[in-house]
Amino acid sequence: DKEVRAIFLRLFAQLFQGYRSCLQLIRIHAEPVIHFHKAAFLGQRGLIENDFLTKVLNGMAFAGFVSERGPPFRACDLFDELVAFEVERIKAEEGNPPKMIKHVRELAEQLFKNENPNPHIAFQKVPRPTEGSHLRVHILPFPRINECRVQELLQEGLARSQGAPPATRGDKKCVVPAGPPVGMFTPS
Predict the structure, then answer these.
(1) Is the pTM for the entire model greater than 0.90?
(2) What is the dihedral of CA 50, 44, 89, 170, to 10 degrees?
(3) Is residue 23 within 8 Å of 65, Cβ to Cβ?
């Protein structure tokens, strides 16, 4: 499934190459508003008559994409790297299927590593109940909760958390690379 996701990642990176050069940051409100100039994007890529891409750009999913990925300072990911730095590589691989498949496999491996950063941690499998286990008569009642023990555990947890540093998320924000301008892409 990672290879299929990698293929779609490449497809959308090819479709949206140069999209950052058509973003406009409007700072009239307390929070900046990000606007995508669709006509400029389609015109510079020579795809004004492309019905598919026009419908994609007019969709709600693309509006969410622009609002999420539009800010110039945020956590970057694999898609940003593809759009900004892999333009020439993707273009060169169009006529060479073995190179394209190799790149897809590399992307799939990166996707797998992103989702499983600690491969040495083994996940415990919970066994399925045996057949007929629901018919057993000797089902034990759920034990009563000891209120005093619950309070002790809560107090211990609070005492530990007060001395611990606050938890922070590992995503480091950076300036999103703009990549090449839209004008350098030719319709394919």
Answers:
(1) no
(2) -100
(3) no
